[in-house]
């Protein structure tokens, strides 16, 4: 796993909070000096510029919608005053937050999207195991992403992790990343950061629920940084699945299972990839 990919994942997972270069470089496994140079050469942004651009870009929808005051948007973006936010926003986009609010859209702004992480080559797949699960009820935060747009998923986990551990009805300390297809949609998918729950009562207002049927799964282990999961998935479907004789189940497309072997702060550890199969 490349150091830059680790740094990007760490920033995307934590940029709504104060971040130091030392924390980022520790997560990347490089010195602060080396990471600063490599990050800029590879991505065309300084680390601080990337964090600033991501925070300001995330603030734009709140300005357009207009449900919060500009000061509230500024504070949520990590700025201590309306003035400081306005200066940074104008430097980033060439216009003020007030002007964006007045025009009511952001079509003329060039937002900074998450940098796509390109993990390095992975080891060969470990032999999978097979499991049968009973029906399960999940609750969590869900977003729709374009295929190939998984670079934004860490920010969803950043929001979800603020709830993890005190979600009403939560069963155990295991988190799930659940991918499901959208009927009639070939370019986008749903991704849900979730936990298993015993019932759907009294959940946070922005939570949604999903019930999966009882079925059989083939289970693979991904070891290393979480940003390498897409390559593991590619390895599964490119080399293992075509010769397996298995037929993929209907729902979900797959889910990731994160237990005590995974560290959500660093993104390192063991992630299980569960794929439903028809019997």
Automatic annotation (TrEMBL):
<dbReference type="InterPro" id="IPR020449">
    <property type="entry name" value="Tscrpt_reg_AraC-type_HTH"/>
</dbReference>
<keyword id="KW-0238">DNA-binding</keyword>
<dbReference type="InterPro" id="IPR009057">
    <property type="entry name" value="Homeodomain-like_sf"/>
</dbReference>
<dbReference type="Pfam" id="PF06445">
    <property type="entry name" value="GyrI-like"/>
</dbReference>
<protein>
    <submittedName>
        <fullName>AraC family transcriptional regulator</fullName>
    </submittedName>
</protein>
<dbReference type="InterPro" id="IPR010499">
    <property type="entry name" value="AraC_E-bd"/>
</dbReference>
<dbReference type="Pfam" id="PF12833">
    <property type="entry name" value="HTH_18"/>
</dbReference>
<keyword id="KW-0805">Transcription regulation</keyword>
<dbReference type="InterPro" id="IPR018060">
    <property type="entry name" value="HTH_AraC"/>
</dbReference>
<dbReference type="GO" id="GO:0003700">
    <property type="term" value="F:DNA-binding transcription factor activity"/>
</dbReference>
<dbReference type="InterPro" id="IPR050959">
    <property type="entry name" value="MarA-like"/>
</dbReference>
<dbReference type="GO" id="GO:0043565">
    <property type="term" value="F:sequence-specific DNA binding"/>
</dbReference>
<feature type="domain" description="HTH araC/xylS-type">
    <location>
        <begin position="5"/>
        <end position="103"/>
    </location>
</feature>
<keyword id="KW-0804">Transcription</keyword>
<dbReference type="InterPro" id="IPR029442">
    <property type="entry name" value="GyrI-like"/>
</dbReference>
<dbReference type="InterPro" id="IPR011256">
    <property type="entry name" value="Reg_factor_effector_dom_sf"/>
</dbReference>
<dbReference type="InterPro" id="IPR018062">
    <property type="entry name" value="HTH_AraC-typ_CS"/>
</dbReference>
């Amino acid at each position: 796993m490349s150091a830059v990919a680790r740094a990007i994942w760490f920033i995307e997972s934590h940029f709504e909070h104060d971040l130091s270069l030392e924390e980022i470089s520790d997560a990347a496994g490089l010195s602060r000096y080396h990471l600063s140079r490599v990050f800029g050469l590879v991505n065309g942004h300084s680390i601080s510029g990337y964090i600033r651009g991501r925070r300001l870009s995330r603030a734009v929808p709140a300005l357009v919608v207009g449900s919060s005051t500009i000061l509230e948007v500024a504070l949520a973006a990590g700025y201590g005053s309306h003035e400081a936010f306005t200066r940074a926003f104008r430097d980033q986009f060439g216009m003020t937050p007030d002007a964006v609010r007045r025009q009511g859209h952001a079509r003329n702004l060039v937002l900074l999207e998450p940098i796509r992480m390109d993990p390095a080559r992975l080891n060969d797949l470990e032999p999978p195991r097979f499991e049968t699960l009973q029906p399960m009820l999940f609750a969590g935060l869900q977003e729709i992403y374009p295929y190939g747009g998984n670079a934004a998923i860490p920010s969803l986990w950043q929001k979800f992790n603020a709830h993890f551990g005190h979600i009403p009805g939560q069963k155990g300390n295991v988190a799930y990343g659940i991918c499901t297809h959208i009927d009639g949609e070939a370019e986008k998918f749903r991704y849900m950061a979730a936990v298993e729950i015993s019932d759907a009562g009294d959940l946070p207002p922005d939570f949604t629920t999903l019930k999966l049927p009882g079925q059989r799964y083939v289970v693979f282990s991904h070891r290393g940084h979480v940003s390498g999961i897409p390559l593991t998935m590619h390895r599964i479907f490119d080399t293992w699945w075509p010769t397996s004789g298995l037929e993929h189940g209907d729902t979900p497309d797959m889910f990731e299972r994160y237990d005590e072997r995974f560290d959500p702060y660093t993104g390192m550890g063991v992630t299980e990839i569960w794929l439903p199969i028809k019997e």
